[in-house]
Structures are given as structure tokens and as C-alpha cells.
Amino acid sequence: MRKLLGTIAILSLTLLALNLMAEDAPNPKYAPAQAIADKVVKDHPEVLVIAMHVTPPGGKENVIVASRFTTAPGKTEIQRIGKVADEDDMRVVKTGKANLEVNKTGDRFEVEAAMLDGAGKIVGAVGIVFPYKVGDDKKALEKKGLAIRDEIRKQTPTLAALFAK
């Protein structure tokens, strides 16, 4: 019985590890977009979250195609891939105007801006979240978020460039 329980425990840990590895693996179809999101987090360690909301070529829905979420200091995970864009996301895509907001707990500030291709055409929305505390300069955080959005634009000549062929 003890041996059986040990075997079950090892199998459970193995399955958990495989599940965690799969969760953090980018969708191969979205690999170019994920590489851009990963570079943003590497280049800007202050970014807590990045999520790219895009309608893939031939797709009908705008979904998250790339992301990085800080889950603990120094640890990030890919999350919510395939999540359908909500009303706020689509408002950014349709109007080109950024959403700027402090979260409910008051410790994060999100800059969600129109995601642009090389020609300046809106191809989606990118949400970039920074740490925040009362008194932080929201305009400076907005400027930083828009600068990151512009870095993404330089790596996105076309919508199709975000997706594997």
C-alpha cells in the first residue's frame, strides 16, 4: 500500500509539472507575437502584465494571442491565450483611444493602447500593466506604456507578421 501511494504521488507530481510546462508554452501559431511579448518583459522588468488582443488573419474574434503575467517576483507565465476581447479591449481597437485605469485594489495602472502595424494601421490592442501606488505620475506611466507600444509597432510590419506561417 505504501509503495502504491508513493507511485501515485510521483505520478501526480509528474502530471502537475507537465501541466505547468504546457501552460507556459506559447501556441505555435502565435509564436512571433509571443516572442515580442517576451522581449517587452525582458527589456522592461517593471511591466507586470502584457496582453496582445488581436483578430488573427481569417479569424472572426479578437483574442489574446500573446501575454506575460507576473505571478511572483521574477516569475512570469503565459496566461489567457485565446480569451475573447471584452468591451474595453474592442473600444481601443475601434477608436484608437487608449484606456487608462488604476485597478480596484489601487496597486496597478494599465495602459491599454491601440496596437499598430508598420504603416500605422490598428491591428489590435495591447494592455501593459505597471505597479502603482497613490501619488505615482499617471501621465508618466501612460507615456511609458505608449513608448512600449511603439517598440512593438517596430517589430510588427504587418498583422500577418504576428503569426507563424
Descriptive overview:
With 165 residues, the chain is α+β, with helices and mostly antiparallel strands. It has one domain: Beta-Lactamase. The protein has four helices and six strands; from the N terminus they run H-H-E-E-E-H-E-E-E-H. The chain has a six-stranded antiparallel β-sheet with strand order 3-2-1-6-5-4, with helices on both faces. A hairpin with a 5-residue loop joins strand 5 and strand 6 (122-131). It is globular and about 45 Å long.
Q: How many helical elements?
A: 4
CATH topology: Beta-Lactamase
Strand content: 25-35%
- The Rg value, from CA coordinates, equals 18 Å
Quick overview of this protein structure:
With 165 residues, this protein is of the alpha+beta class.
Keywords for this entry:
single chain, 165 residues, alpha+beta, Beta-Lactamase, globular
How is this fold's topology laid out?
Elements: H1 2-23, H2 31-43, E1 49-54, E2 63-72, E3 75-77, H3 87-95, E4 99-102, E5 108-116, E6 122-131, H4 138-154
Antiparallel strand pairs: 1-2, 1-6, 2-3, 4-5, 5-6
